[in-house]
Amino acid sequence: SDGGFTYWEGSSSFNSWSTIYASHFLVEARKTGIDIDEATWNNMLHHLGELSRKDMESEDLYSGGEEATHAIYTLYVLAMAEENVLSRLNWHRDNLFDELRPHDKARLAAAYAVLGKKDVARDLLAKISDLGVYDTSYRYTYGSFRSNVRDMAMLLDAVVTVDPESPLIAGLIDQLAGKMQEGRWGTTQENAFAFLAIGKAASRGAKMGGPEKVTVRLGDGTVVPFSGQLLLKTPELLKGNVRLETKGDGEIQFVWEAVGVEKEKKAVQTDRGLEIRRAYLDKDGKPLKLDEVRQGDLVVVELTMQSLDSGTVENVAIVDLLPAGLEIENSRLSTSAAIPWTQSTAEADYVDIRDDRLNLYLSVGSSRKTYYYTARAVTVGNFALPGIYAEAMYDPEIMSESGRGKLTILPAGKP
After folding, report:
1. Which of 24, 124, 269, 367 is the most exposed place for a label (fewest CB within 10 A)?
2. Beta strands 243-247 and 213-217: pairing type?
């Protein structure tokens, strides 16, 4: 009701970054003609207004949970929503501009541009240098969840807003594209900001450095019309090698992707900054023999986790896929087994229970913690046992995977 957005459904406290982030995309959506509930809109603007009134000292710009990026981003979103924040923009320009990072300088300039102060915006944009800071990879799992890719995308978005003809645009797009892996960037936030920025550049006719003409020729000689983007599917690809021909200077980007399911997944155990392990126990806490589970048996799933570094890894997602023969017990039903010793020491921020998996979201420290839940053996047969996977949501290089195998569920009754 106060206009802030929580990080997790059902949470009682708002998160500053998720509030600004969600507000930005609501503003973008409204500008395209999508209806936004009026009460939600007004409460959101009020909350952003309260956030924008916080003063910052130069020595605290990028320390702690809330950073200069929060403040500048808030003002930009308010400016997009046609709120008068000119005096706050002037304060940040006059007192903090030289201390800001390039993407925050550009975002400040973009806020002026949105308010119609084009000359001020271009003047600030011209003062931005040292874009090499984004060449080195960095990722944070707290605060504004910043990364070099996210910040570069924010910079591109701001530059396009101020000056769609800027010579910086083609180079920034090229750098962003070069940081893609397997057709995407590392996190949801990086993908959202990158697609927003590149899409805005394309829609505003920005100078993106593309060639004058692109010809796409299939293996049988067929020429496929191309006008900005093209998706080729299996029938076209089966015709043979695809040839891309360009005329003029510039580059085009293409991605080739094959999607499928491995018939035989090899058992792997990988730990990079995190360790996640899973054990299947009986109601007495003894390890189950995975080739002797009986239909109807209660299975206690024990997850143990820890950070392999000295600090805490925040915002970790743990995905525990179940074999097809098990179903998660609903702890709210009276038929669920009460097992006193299954007291979890891991404190989850959010738990998402689905038909085929349990998703757990939490922070993981260096001391080993456990999380318990129960499942029931419901179907007789031989099943693949998927691995358990953990990943820092804002730094996918921090991850752990283990536990692949096989599970046999035998008919109920005596052996």
Report:
1. 367
2. antiparallel
